[in-house]
């Protein structure tokens, strides 16, 4: 059988190669075979036994923020299965890049005055380390708090923001001065586009949101019928470029590809007037993917010998608000791909990477379904109304579909897997709401073991600041990781060897 064949292959390999290869071949064989799960369990045990905390100083910090439940656990599971199914596999066994991060915690996302959080107050928590009230950013007069990004810049690191939303994304919608209420303008409160250009000296800004940077009589470079948004006749792109050395502005993929990372210190890329397109609808000729933006950002930022701070955000949130699970989940698969690319361009030795979400959504994933059931498919069980339903559903939202006769529409896989299909929900709402449950935090790299247990969301900023020893944690007693010694052979601990041997004997 397959198992004994693989043991034979293993025996041959054993004389020439490592135990690990041997493991790989054995557990590839068959899930029906108990040996498969025993070998897999032992392999995971070997990994767990060899885990060592990295007590070094984090030179670089990367925060990946799946806007809206990417790390809500139901979205993580559905994303993992979709990733596998896109590769032609059943899907459940697939491993996301974030799944490989060794340290995990849960983040309590509530706001000071709200059980269900919003994006502005949660941003104040995970970026600045202070919980806020619903809709509150860090700009309240006499109550200012500074983000880890700002503090990292003050410590001499390069800093960047990469997002698939507009770069001025905020819950108050003050994207430009045109969107601000009169009292806010009179009070001297600046719109987010203005703040983005004037507050912190940011090295790399990539995302959407061109129209909020341009005056309302300036035509958009990509869409001749559109103009900028600003009433103050200020071109914030020109202002940003002014007084900067080796600075570039780009607005399409070809221009981004042409940017020479080695000679560029500052890069602003704005690829759409508002948000960038969903990954599912992106024009790969004209618009960069999140992964491509992350790659360019890291190559520019990592030239700084003092390290960098990078904030990466994906608009998974928007797909969920529309109750379109397909858009949200394809977005989340791309988000995971960007995390993988960042992992290739950095080292776990000196880079702390943290993956989390600002809040969850009322997205649920379940009901009777066989192994490999399409993520956007149907439950094998039908409702008491004798109609099919999808395994992905929303508690509320625009997918409410009970007609005036009190019946639901009949659906099939072709309908539910089409782009633009909104999964059904129990309560009609024009926009599906956030969820209130905890979201996961995945972490790897120096001091990533600080992410453990159940934590307040505001702890994220504290743990990241401590790991990099930046304000207010300047007495952290952490040494930089030593340079890797490329000549060092792979060290197998005695425990690992013993386990490998036991497993092998067991299999024979
Ligand atoms: C936009 O309007 C301002 C103020 O009237 C003017 O100075 C500027 O030249 C105009 N720009 C364009 C591109 O028309
Ligand atoms: C409700 O039921 C009636 C009678 O079967 C049918 O004519 C009508 O089209 C139904 N309405 C909707 C909205 O489906
Ligand atoms: C879905 O579409 C395919 C291809 O057009 C068709 O063969 C199949 O019968 C359809 N399934 C349902 C349930 O309508």
UniProtKB/TrEMBL annotation:
Q: What class of enzyme is it?
A: hydrolase
State the name under which the record lists this protein: alkaline phosphatase
Q: Which protein family is it in?
A: Belongs to the alkaline phosphatase family.
Q: Which cofactor does it need?
A: Mg(2+); Zn(2+)
Q: Where in the cell is it found?
A: Cell membrane
Residues in the active site? 119
Q: Note the SMART domains from the entry.
A: alkPPc
Q: Which GO terms describe its cellular component?
A: plasma membrane; side of membrane
Q: How does it assemble?
A: Homodimer.
The molecular function terms in GO held by this entry are: alkaline phosphatase activity; metal ion binding
- List ligand-binding residues for Zn(2+) 1: 434
What's the protein's topology in the membrane?
A: Lipid-anchor; GPI-anchor
Which Enzyme Commission number(s) are listed? 3.1.3.1
InterPro entries under this entry?
Alkaline_phosphatase, Alkaline_phosphatase_core_sf
Give the organism the record lists.
Astyanax mexicanus (Blind cave fish)
Could you tell me the keywords of this UniProt record?
A: Cell membrane, Glycoprotein, GPI-anchor, Hydrolase, Lipoprotein, Magnesium, Membrane, Metal-binding, Transmembrane, Transmembrane helix, Zinc
Under the heading PANTHER family, the entry gives:
ALKALINE PHOSPHATASE
How many cofactors are bound and how?
Binds 1 Mg(2+) ion.
Residue positions binding Mg(2+): 67, 313
Q: Please list every transmembrane segment annotated in the UniProt record, as residue ranges.
A: 7-28
Q: Output the lineage of the source organism.
A: Eukaryota, Metazoa, Chordata, Craniata, Vertebrata
Q: Where does Zn(2+) 2 bind?
A: 67, 317, 321, 358-359
